[in-house]
């Protein structure tokens, strides 16, 4: 008995449903700057929502990048970079709109998760020009994220873009220098200078990462996990060893039955 092989679809699959947002905060998007009209407690509340919903500990550049987009377009900061084909999504939508419902852990972990994206990748910017998307990549919940790029036309390959979103945007603006983007570059330089934001897009970080990675991966970004004295990698898992053993055993039995039927 033979079984037809199925080719995995290489097209990008994007989660269409956006995270639920508060109607009150959504209707007030034409108001003053978020960072100006909300107190520190309210801002931290939204950061906490992102932490729980996306399993993402927001790095310092996250708030600063949103603030920069507000300086470009106070009414619509999520579309402030539409001139170069970018839109802020995912965690930025929660920061901008908030959420009226209680958030469960990992509730939004699949939002803007593309077909080849690993769980370590959280999309924060989508690019309409080249079907790519930008996100934070972190090896674990506790580790410091860096900015990376994934393109639909390059199956699963993740490209390092810098230590923060400003480094990524600076690289893009340098490549797109024209009369249409000159004012954007000027605003960018003024903001970065005023906020003393460090821009480091050198390749030294990724070279160091590849040198110390536990193993290479098909997405070319490598795997970095804690290694014990016996060179054994370990990551905590969300199920008990008993349940894990049951799942592995059941999968193995199904595999044996399928293999028997094929014969």
From TrEMBL:
Keyword Nucleus, does the record have it? yes
Task: Name a Pfam family for this protein.
Answer: HPF1
Q: Which InterPro entries match?
A: HPF1 (IPR019361)
Entry GO terms, CC: chromosome; nucleus
Compositional bias annotation for Basic residues: 1-10
Subcellular location, in the record's words?
Answer: Chromosome; Nucleus
State if Nucleus is listed as a keyword.
Answer: yes
Which key words are in the record?
Answer: Chromosome, Nucleus
In this entry, which stretches build a coiled coil? none
Q: Which GO terms describe its biological process?
A: DNA damage response
The transmembrane residues are none
The record's region (Disordered) falls at: 1-30
Molecular function in Gene Ontology? histone binding; poly-ADP-D-ribose binding
Say which family it is in: Belongs to the HPF1 family.
Protein name stated in the entry = Uncharacterized protein
**Species name for this entry?**
Trichobilharzia regenti (Nasal bird schistosome)
């Amino acid at each position: 008995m033979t079984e037809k092989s199925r080719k995995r679809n290489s097209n990008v699959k994007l989660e269409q449903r956006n995270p639920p947002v508060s109607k009150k905060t959504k209707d007030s998007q034409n108001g003053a700057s978020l960072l100006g009209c909300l107190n520190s407690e309210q801002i931290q509340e939204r950061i906490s929502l992102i932490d729980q919903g996306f399993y993402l500990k927001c790095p310092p550049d996250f708030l600063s990048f949103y603030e920069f987009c507000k300086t470009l377009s106070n009414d619509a900061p999520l579309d402030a970079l539409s001139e170069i084909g970018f839109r802020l999504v995912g965690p930025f939508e929660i920061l901008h709109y908030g959420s009226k419902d209680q958030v469960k852990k990992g509730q939004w972990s699949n939002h803007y998760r593309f077909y080849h994206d690993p769980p370590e990748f959280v999309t924060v910017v989508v690019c309409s020009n080249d079907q790519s998307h930008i996100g934070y990549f972190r090896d674990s919940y506790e580790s410091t994220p860096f900015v990376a790029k994934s393109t639909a036309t390059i199956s699963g390959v993740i490209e390092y873009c810098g230590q923060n979103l400003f480094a990524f945007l600076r690289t893009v603006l340098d490549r797109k220098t024209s009369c249409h983007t000159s004012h954007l570059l000027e605003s960018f330089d003024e903001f970065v200078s005023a906020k003393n934001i460090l821009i480091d897009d050198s390749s030294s970080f990724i070279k160091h990462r590849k040198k110390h990675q536990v193993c290479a991966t098909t997405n070319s970004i490598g795997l970095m996990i804690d290694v014990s004295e016996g060179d054994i990698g370990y990551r905590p898992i969300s199920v008990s060893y008993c349940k894990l053993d049951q799942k592995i055993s059941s999968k193995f039995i199904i595999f044996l039955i399928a293999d028997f039927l094929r014969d």
